[in-house]
Amino acid sequence: MRHNNITVSGNRTSVLSNGTLQLHNINKYDGGVYKMEGHDAVGKCLVREHIWLEVQDPVSHPKVSVSCKGGRLDLRCEAERGDNVSFRWATLGGSVNASLGVTHLLSLEGSDQQELVCVASNMVSTETSDPLKPDCRETWIIYTTLWPFIGGDIKTVCRVDEAAADMTLRLDNLTKDLSGRYSVEVYYTNGKFKEERDISLTIQDPVTPPQLSQDCLLHGEIEVSCSSTGEDPQYSWTLEDRPLDGSVAILSDETQTVIMRRSISGPITCAVRNRVSSAHTTQELRKCPGNGIEGPREFCLSPGY
């Protein structure tokens, strides 16, 4: 077999029993027109043909990019490697089951779509993109500058432009002096004004893990106190993971302190929280005289007894 007047033989070729000719160690330069000759045992030419051989690189894993314009989704499928690559789009339902198009570009209306895949292929391989569920809901940005009502100064407290879809704005590296009322301006990514909102910002110190103290009372009850630093702490109590009630404790409006009734035992937990953090501490209730344990006894004797 000859290619560009060069004879291809030896360890580059092999002929199978069914007459198939195999080429080994193929590279891109092997593509082109081949002249094939077949001879009998005495050298007589029995067949002579010309064959066109095209050598292609296999297709790489395709990637899909999405852009939104006025509620319309534009999808682009690209493969970094591969020769003469063709593309098609399909919905995904366990396997590709519905064709949507045969180009690397696809336009869809709305955001309520099934999962899609892009299939890239050539004559030697086929690859499918990762499943994608298009979403073209409008996004917006929040100006990095918040305008406070108080003082009239501009304070830049937000360094991140992107806002979540639920309009959550995250502020980092805050200090206590930034508390106050603010006006927030919201714009779509195309620069169109969306809305203005007034917000009240309160910055609190987080609570610390609470400290528990226990004191025995006269008749065997146990007074348990809980303390934590931090702003506006809110306390709650549980005994063996169950909220306290009147059967085990004497409760009061001062939730930092509870009085446990006699003969009550088990792990008691004080939990504290405010708007920015929470913490808890658990201790085993101590045993006090009159609380299931005999303590020292005192006797009062009358004179002359």
The named CATH superfamily of the largest domain: Immunoglobulins
Range of strand content: 35-45%
Helix content estimate: under 10%
CATH C-level of the largest domain: Mainly Beta
How would you describe this structure to a colleague?
The chain is mostly beta strands and 305 residues long. The chain folds into four domains: 2-53, Immunoglobulins (Immunoglobulin-like, Sandwich), CATH 2.60.40.10; 63-128, Immunoglobulin-like, CATH 2.60.40; 140-201; 211-284, Immunoglobulin-like. The protein is built from no helices and 25 strands. The strands form seven sheets. Strands 2-1-5-6 form a four-stranded antiparallel sheet, with no helix packed on it. Keywords: Glycoprotein, Membrane, Signal. One of its GO terms (cellular component) is cell-cell junction. It is found in: Membrane. Its main location: membrane.
Question: Which key features would you list for this structure?
Answer:
mainly beta, Immunoglobulin-like, 4-stranded antiparallel sheet, Ig-like_dom_sf, Ig-like_fold, membrane
Topology readout:
Blueprint: E1 2-3, E2 6-7, E3 13-15, E4 21-23, E5 32-39, E6 45-53, E7 63-69, E8 72-78, E9 86-92, E10 96-101, E11 105-109, E12 116-121, E13 126-128, E14 140-142, E15 147-148, E16 180-188, E17 193-201, E18 211-216, E19 222-227, E20 234-239, E21 242-243, E22 249-250, E23 257-260, E24 267-273, E25 278-284
